[in-house]
Amino acid sequence: MFRTARSANPVDWSIRLDSVSKVYGSAKSPVQALDAVSIELRRGTFTAVMGPSGSGKSTFLNCAAGLDRPTSGSVWLGDVELSNLDEIQLTEVRRERIGFIFQAYNLLGSLTVEENVSLPLRLADRKTDRAFLREVLTAVGLGEHLKRRPSELSGGQQQRVAVARALITRPDAVVADEPTGALDSRSSRQVLELLRHVVDNMGQTVLMVTHDPVAASYADSVVFLADGRLAGEMHSPTSEQVASRMTHLGEW
Ligand SMILES: Nc1ncnc2c1ncn2[C@@H]1O[C@H](COP(=O)(O)OP(=O)(O)OP(=O)(O)O)[C@@H](O)[C@H]1O
Questions:
Q1: What is the C-alpha to C-alpha distance for residues 93 and 124, in angstroms, rounded to an integer?
Q2: Which InterPro entries has this protein been placed in (predicted)?
């Protein structure tokens, strides 16, 4: 249903939030995790989300990627409004149109590199395009390790498998929650350069939550959150500028 609408009516943004609020907890003691956040992430751009602890970054990412439903407001993935979807449709959208990268890699230990990467296609009952699989594995620098299992790879290599897995469905957007949080600085740099590469050379849209100003400096723009609200945006950021802005936002 949504596929037809997408091709008939292309839109500029990959992800769009219109006045999204999220309230957790009970009516007696509500926690306003997001407060009327509106933003448009254009296709083919790399956006980092930063903010003090508890400012709503993960909630923002989860709402943007359909992992959580806003209390009010609307979230669009291309021309599909996620709140109009039932749980089955939302699961399908997440599986086929969004690539996920988490801090803990979340690979399946019993599967090889190749099997981990093609798993989203098998789950969606889609045929694996061998040429694209090879292209993606080469892009992440793992073309020589197809038959290895995650335990035989370094943390950085495992995260690059996770990046390949996120790309294999050719999603509308890739969302990454602290993708370098568990990596040393060299492996972090490789993963960030890879995310930059998929934006610049594969036209992907990337949304990344991070605590690290150096990681944020790889993005085209940084969105700052404070107390669940948008607290500014920085284009072509340097790590020094990001660190300085964060210091002004409070403890982080
Ligand atoms: N499931 C939940 N139930 C109740 N409150 C929640 C829940 N998830 C998040 N919160 C609260 O919502 C607010 C925003 O949380 P969120 O995890 O989005 O912040 P964050 O910026 O990602 O934090 P951190 O940097 O520490 O990971 C916090 O006050 C948090 O305690």
A1: 10
A2: AAA+_ATPase, ABC_transporter-like_ATP-bd, ABC_transporter-like_CS, ABC_transpr_LolD-like, MacB-like_ATP-bd, P-loop_NTPase
